[in-house]
Amino acid sequence: MSNPKQILLVDDDYDFLESLQLLLMDDGHEVIPVSNGKDAVEKYIEFEPDLVLLDIRMPGIDGYETFLHVIKHDPNARVIFTSAYAIGNKQYQNAKDLSLSGILSKPIEFAKLRQMITIHAR
């Protein structure tokens, strides 16, 4: 890959987290994997990655709340939600209005993910 990115990958499903991490690393990206919202906010503040791939449904701090913490720290943060569930509620619209970069439905099509990285990562 000619333009590797630093990507914060957040998901409470360890199998998904590990497999997507390996695919992204095979594409040349540096991946920071975390399994919960609290750690995601801490890692974002520490590294300020080029892109965040953020699961919506997680125990504790969910993806919406994590997103709000991240953009409070950095209004220019690039965040893409990942979800296996239907989206269309008020929180999602609010996130879009606040600068959410996009959403990818699980199972993720890797070609679409590559395209979104190219478009949205800093």
Key phrases:
5 strands; five-stranded parallel β-sheet; alpha/beta; globular; 44% helix; single chain; 5 helices; 122 residues
- The dominant shape is globular
Distance between the termini: 15 Å
Secondary structure: helix percent: 40-55%
Number of strands: 5
Give the overall average pLDDT: 92
Low-confidence stretches: none
Largest sheet: 5 strands, parallel
Summing up helix and strand content along with how strands pair, one would put the structural category as alpha/beta
- Element-level helix/strand string: EHEHEHEHEH
Describe the model.
The chain is of the alpha/beta class and 122 residues long. It has a 5-stranded parallel β-sheet with strand order 2-1-3-4-5, with helices on both faces. The model has no long low-confidence stretch (mean pLDDT 92). Strand 3, helix 3 (63-73) and strand 4 (79-83) form a beta-alpha-beta unit. It has 5 helices and 5 strands; from the N terminus they run βαβαβαβαβα.
Task: Summarize the topology.
Layout: E1 6-10, H1 14-26, E2 30-34, H2 37-47, E3 51-55, H3 63-73, E4 79-83, H4 90-97, E5 102-105, H5 110-120
Parallel strand pairs: 1-2, 1-3, 3-4, 4-5
Quick recap:
The chain has 5 helices and 5 strands; from the N terminus they run E-H-E-H-E-H-E-H-E-H. It is an alpha/beta fold and 122 residues long.
